[in-house]
Amino acid sequence: SLMAAIGAGAFVWDGQRIEEEELRRSAQELQQLENPEAFPEQERGWEPVMEREHFRLWRRPIPGSALFQYRVFGSYTDVTPRQFFNVQLDTEYRKQWDSLVLKLDVVERDPATGSEVIHWVTQFPYPMYSRDYVYVRRYSVDSDRNLMVLVSRAVEHPGIPEDPEHVRVRSYESHMVIRPHRGFDENGFDYLLTYSDNPQTVFPRYCVSWMVSSGMPEFLEKLHSAALKAKKMELELRDYLS
Residue limits of the START domain (predicted)? Predict the structure, then answer.
């Protein structure tokens, strides 16, 4: 990857890194959910899709496209916010608990903000090709407001050219906000995940909508199970809060 980057030109962080303002807007999404009347009309328009014991799922159309943006609000009481947060960010551990991962690597880091470029290849249901994502992510822990935020979005990277064995997903964005019920190391938290991507399929919109709306809760349950396993087995994960 390094030699490819040198040959194709180095990745330029300016304009690609996730800035403080993006983190702030993501944290604000939790306030929008809880107090929608305090925000402009364009921030509303979410349609309920599904409600289960631990979460609720909404969607809204993305203007100018046939796609939707999705939002999940949920709670867990049996793991700590720190465990849940670390399991999401630890790429090596995810290769163990997420059987769909074919490749998941940190390509490079931005010393100015801590943003990271990730290359992720994931299996899709047969007979579709696997998908690959190149995205930048940044996380933040706000002890004063008792919040943890993780923002990811697709970028172009000269050192990671397209592979004909995969379909490159160029439109992808994810915002996760975690609010502990008490402290970062005490069981119990709420989370809000706002997510959109264009998986580049030829299937009708309702099929894509079904795949995303069913796949997202399934992923969150796998993430929760992985956090429980890490807690029970006292696995040594990187602590991203330290």
Answer: 42-232
